[in-house]
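[09:14] KT: can someone run the structure on this one? pasting the chain below
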Amino acid sequence: MDSTRLRAFYRGFAMDTPQGNNAFSYAPRVNKVIHVPPLVKGTVDDVMPGDLVVFSEIVPGTGELNAPGLRQFVHIERPGQDIFICDNHNHAFSFWSAGIAAGAFPLGSTLVHVDQHKDTRPADVLPGEDHFHYANYILNVGNFIPPALGLGWFSQVVQVGSAEAFAVDPKDPFVLDIDLDIFAPVMGYIPDDLKITRLRTWIARSRFITLATSPFFMDQPSAAALVRRLL
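[09:31] RB: done, structure tokens below
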């Protein structure tokens, strides 16, 4: 699919107001600025850790966490398949919007959401016409799925966050949405071999894939290495 419009929006920018992901712990934080990397069209080799803070939050018992993300988001186009790789997961909403507009996957597809979280908290504001602004300045990493359901992009969500759920066999066509926090240490009770085997199987079958490297839960060099194993 043509990602020109997406790349025109995702040129790389900073957020210094308490909106979107920058609203978490905004008042007590020392750091008030997070960054959104640019989107490029490329290959898995273009998935690289960056130096800029993309997620900032006060963690009880730890203090202020300022997590760097990716150097750039990457759109990988393969025959019959589009893969979008980002750091914070709410950007998947932008990619889904562009995919729907391009006919990259049909309305009412099943969303297979692989994540240690459900990401289905209610969004306080309904989406307008500018889905890219909405994804960045209204949504956050925990509430981007309900608006997509409300718009009819997906008919159902299959939540994969347990060993049992990895046995699911979704019916085609389905959109695959992966958060690499499923590989975080807290999820170590699910064998990595099982996760990688099932994800590779689903990746081979899905026409449209979004993948988040989850900088709050994963150091980004490890996440980039995982992306290479999966793709």
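[09:33] KT: thanks! The two ends are 19 Å apart (CA to CA).
[09:34] RB: yep, looked fine to me
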